[in-house]
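Marked as duplicate of an earlier ticket. Keeping the data here for the record.
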Amino acid sequence: MPLPGPDVVLLGLAAFLVVYAKSLWSLAMHFHVMAHEGMHAITATILGIRVRGVKLKRNGDGETQYRVPAVGGRGVVAGFVGYLGPSAFGLAAAGLISLGYIIAALWVAVIFLVILLLKLLRSFGCVSVPLTIALFVVLFRYTSVSVQVVMAYCMTWVLLLSGVRMAMQHGTNAGDAIILKAQTHLPRWLWALLWVMGTLGAVYVGGRLLVLRT
């Protein structure tokens, strides 16, 4: 069963602590970058851009490499969506939860992680992604449904809030903004603004789905 609104808010506050407390974020940021680079790779593949692979680094950075340069409109779209990736995944999870498919949100996360695992290049991701999948397996195998429900909400909040944190933290210094400026000649601040607006909007919509429809 969905959790009561006050409990959802408390889990949101806990997720806020995870995202903004330095010691906890040093772990959570790896989950964030999986969603960020995963969105680059998924979008590029959908648009017909061949993805060579994904690198996830120990310091929380990542890189999606293409077999040919991602230029033109398709390249701009693939480059733009990365900072919206965690928020988009969080919004999708919130949608599933609001429809009553709470545990399914966790399973969908595992499916995307397995797909990401298949596209990894030699990097720290070869450790972080299998370890994250293993944690989900432990969650499914050894915990009760109640615990799994709580973790589904926590995962969703972390994805939503981490999107805002990184969009604001990187701002115009984001590597994607630099690449997009070179491709489009549009200023970096415009891309940074769009990311902040998009991630904040996702928190608003996702939060309403989690709190008001449960």
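See parent ticket for discussion. The chain has one domain: 5-212.
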